[in-house]
């Protein structure tokens, strides 16, 4: 009776272990090369939406891998009734990041349409239901957000939702100091300012 339940879990753990070994063995130069390859593939019209989604998740995982203290990532983590594209373990000793809970959740949307307020609200709800361990969520939408969705991250809740679009993601990739770029983006949201 347990076999059908345990097999997918064991397969997922084996895949994650293999990916983790591959990432840790990757030189800084190869990591940067893979980040740019993922970015180029995400932006090509030939890939299927599913492949673009997986590449976007991989890209974000690699970006976080370049930031000390935020470089332990798990992809496609399943909860009881939901799935998370990325869960980042927050082990940063940076004062700004250390206040944001033990986990950071990232959701990637490579949709044809802009992301609406309901999707942002649903994501915020995922953050809220994490036993107060998650205070920061990052929602990436390659085709941007509706005006109503953009205004939803300026509210008075405990969780911060950083809304990134294609332009922001490109800035983050190109940044010489990715940790500082992420910190400045987070500070902008805390100060209720728009991202550059």
Could you give the topology of this structure?
Blueprint: H1 3-24, H2 28-42, H3 49-65, E1 72-78, E2 83-89, H4 95-98, E3 103-109, H5 117-128, E4 134-141, H6 147-151, E5 160-165, H7 166-174, H8 178-190
Describe the structure.
By secondary structure, this protein is of the alpha/beta class. Helix content is 49%, strand content 18%. Strands 1-2-3-4-5 form a five-stranded mixed beta sheet, sandwiched between helices. The longest helix has 22 residues, at 3-24. The chain is globular and about 40 Å long. The termini are far apart. The model has no long low-confidence stretch (mean pLDDT 83).
What fraction strand? 15-25%
Number of contiguous helices = 8
Radius of gyration: 17 Å
What's the SSE pattern?
A: HHHEEHEHEHEHH
Strand order of the largest sheet: 1-2-3-4-5
Average the pLDDT over all residues and give the rounded result: 83
The structural class is alpha/beta
Biggest β-sheet strands, sense, barrel = 5 strands, mixed
| Uncertain runs | none
Number of E strands: 5
Distance between the termini: 53 Å
Which shape, going by the Cα principal axes? globular
What is the helix fraction of residues, given as a range? Answer: 40-55%
